[in-house]
Amino acid sequence: MKIQLIRVIFLKYLIKGLVAMVGLYIFARKNVMRNFRVIKAIPVVILAVFLMTGFSGCKKVKDTIEAAWEGYWAGVFDLGDGWQIELSGDRATYVTAGISKTGTNVGDSFAIGMELVGNNKWKGNIRDKNGFGFLVRGTAEIVNNKLVITPDGAAPYTLNKGVKNTGSSGGGTGTNAQTLLNEKVDGKRGDQKIYKVTIPTGVKVLEVRTTEVAGTYYYNLADLFVSKGVDPTVKLLPTYSWTADKASVNPNREDDVVVFQNPAAGVYHIMLYGYNSDFTSQLVVKIEK
């Protein structure tokens, strides 16, 4: 899509330059009897016009190309409630999970089949209901570092430009969150790594997350379980099952997240379990009052 847009822009300004040159030549021929010296001046004038048109056109082409690249379908945007999406190619995907949403998981499609239809505007299949509904036809437009989503026949909603959460900030908690635990955890297949955190009174949100941190080795394949007051437990027979207040068992290396709203004060037991693989995960626990 980038290459096609650049070609169209280049041809547009090239044609404008050629039209200007031809027009000047015709004008000079019509007035040749009035002043023979015009003939001699034609090559010089045409060259001057070509150079001026060319250089100004190149600047416009450069500026337009830069604007097109700035508005290209890419980037991370905050959806709300700790969720983030990332734009890439002709689609957008949920890349960070926040407060649990029924039927929504990291790796699911937020938008698919997006095609450029205007200046920084795309058309395709996008989620309705503020980003957590069904895929429906609609438009997406990038305006001032905001992504404006307009499902067909429904009210628009807006996402702010964000930075992909890697476990150091964000999540189901907000910008005023307090970090209680931020530790790298290694385990073998079958290992159960237990951590305990004390939650005080007056907490509005408790978020427990396993993630990977960019720049170092991680392999976030641990399943995450949390219970208040007791250790979570798992069973492998007759089927894989567990006893826990909350659990997150995503099959791949995406973040596992559990969120408690208005959690009761007390000690919470967190278990990272290597169900079928070794793992290296960053365990992050945050609260917000």
From TrEMBL:
Keywords, sorted A to Z: Membrane, Transmembrane, Transmembrane helix
Segments crossing the lipid bilayer: 6-26, 38-57
Keyword Transmembrane helix set for record: yes
Protein name as catalogued: Pre-peptidase C-terminal domain-containing protein
Species: Daejeonella lutea
